[in-house]
């Protein structure tokens, strides 16, 4: 049996895995029901800066009332060269929320 009978395969390119630990922060924001979740997500991304690795909408709650909804996002922060401090993560999260507030009128849900 020769190698010619083996099926053809495609090369898979490996992806890099971060060696530094990630810091996860969840935020829930109250916005007008007319606001698109993608606009809030983009504002959070812009405000968080380059430490933000990913952002995911994981909940939408419509029963707030008064024409408002709650959108909850999971933010993952990571630096390539070091472990982030709690202060760095908090600062990035607060900057993200401030930008979302500025662009969409979002208010942090307590």
From TrEMBL:
<protein>
    <submittedName>
        <fullName>Unannotated protein</fullName>
    </submittedName>
</protein>
<dbReference type="InterPro" id="IPR005121">
    <property type="entry name" value="Fdx_antiC-bd"/>
</dbReference>
<dbReference type="Pfam" id="PF03147">
    <property type="entry name" value="FDX-ACB"/>
</dbReference>
<feature type="domain" description="FDX-ACB">
    <location>
        <begin position="18"/>
        <end position="109"/>
    </location>
</feature>
<dbReference type="InterPro" id="IPR036690">
    <property type="entry name" value="Fdx_antiC-bd_sf"/>
</dbReference>
């Amino acid at each position: 049996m020769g190698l010619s009978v083996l099926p053809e395969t495609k090369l898979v390119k490996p992806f890099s895995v971060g060696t530094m630990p990630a810091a996860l922060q969840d935020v829930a924001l109250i916005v007008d029901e007319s606001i698109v979740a993608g606009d809030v997500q983009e504002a959070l991304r812009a405000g968080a800066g380059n430490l933000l690795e990913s952002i995911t909408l994981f909940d939408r709650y419509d029963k707030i009332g008064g024409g408002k909804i709650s959108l909850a996002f999971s933010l993952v922060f990571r630096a390539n060269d070091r472990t982030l401090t709690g202060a760095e993560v908090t600062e990035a999260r607060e900057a993200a929320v401030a930008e979302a507030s500025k662009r969409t009128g979002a208010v942090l849900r307590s």
